[in-house]
Amino acid sequence: MSSNVLAVFTKDNLDTYLKELAKEFRKLNGAAVHAEIILIGGAAILANYGFRDMTTDVDAVIHATSYMKDAINRVGDKFDLPNGWLNSDFTRTSSYSAKLDEISVYYKTYSNVLNIRTVSAEYLIAMKLQSGRKYKNDLSDIIGILSEHQKLGHPITLEAISSAVVTLYGSWHDIPNYSRDFIEKVMHNNNYEQLYRSILWQEKLAREMLIDFNSNHDDAVVESNADDILASLKRKIK
């Protein structure tokens, strides 16, 4: 039975788990049936960039037969991963868009049956803006992506990000106001590395504040109230 303890996923071990997943799926389903998984969030960051070392969950869009669930569980049992270590829960959040199938890009194929796709830079940023969680890595991930593309000599423009937002969500209407202000300020900052460290520290502090609050309030924090609770805690500190 898979563990309920949080796992740490790195670029290397994620590759191992996906290889094993493909093998298990092929055993269950045969060589003629293919599956497709679109990695998003932290897993897509790990696959495409070097500024993050790990993530604690693997969010994805999964297109496969029902045997995929069994394959996921088998890999989880083999490596003592948490239940649902690979999941599509995010498809029930505001960050999800049906357009992800269209805009995703090819990454790798395992065992000739499992095609892995990811999400490219401007679309990842759009999704991070949509979620805009100050206690996760949403904001630091945005800066990390911008920084890596700037170093490569292929800077991402605000126009490209705006186009991605419109493609995924129709308009900027549902993007949180904080996220809108954040991206405008960030795009006018030339020192991404310093800003990255600063935002990363702020996210860590916010996460610790919520964990401490949760431990004293019977796990009262959920994603829908986390920002309000965090804002209240910060006001008390001030």
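Next protein, fold it too.
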Amino acid sequence: MNAACLTMSLGMPESATATPDDTALVQRSIAGDMRAFELLYRKHVGRVYGTILRIVGVDRARAEELTQEAFVRTWQKLAGFRFECAFSTWLYRLSVNVALMELRGRGDEHTVEDEVLELAAGGDVPFCAGERADLERAVAQLPPRARAVLVLHDVEGWKHEEIAGELGMAVGSSKAQLHRARGLLRRALGAVA
């Protein structure tokens, strides 16, 4: 099993693991069966869209575009899928990468030195939850990298080492960004209350 498949499958919910149905649909899709690929799309689009939406900041139009881009890339790369992990794991990893590439390409966030962020990290602070709509709005307002770290760590269950590797930052910076995101969320949700 390749490392990306292994690390992603560890954070995946039980319902998203490989099914014989996915395997058969992938094989048929590789053979050119568009109906089989459509079934894979319908089965997985909700989770892919939801994750991308949270990563890009609840910009629904952009999340829809990136979801479509993720499935176009899936179709293009499907012949290279080696069945070393669940199709859902592979698809999910590809989709997260599409969303993260979007964040990397934006450049709309002020860069803060890694050392400053690491000093600010302190200890872990429990994730505060409030009204769902308020929480989603607050998460959407976070700076892009802080939002990505928060979503990947607290929502998707990634480890800081994985996040750091994907976002091209130090592990300490990932922890600092998470701390920053949680602090900003507490303030935003405190203002709502």
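About the second fold: The CA atoms of residues 100 and 167 lie 7 Å apart.
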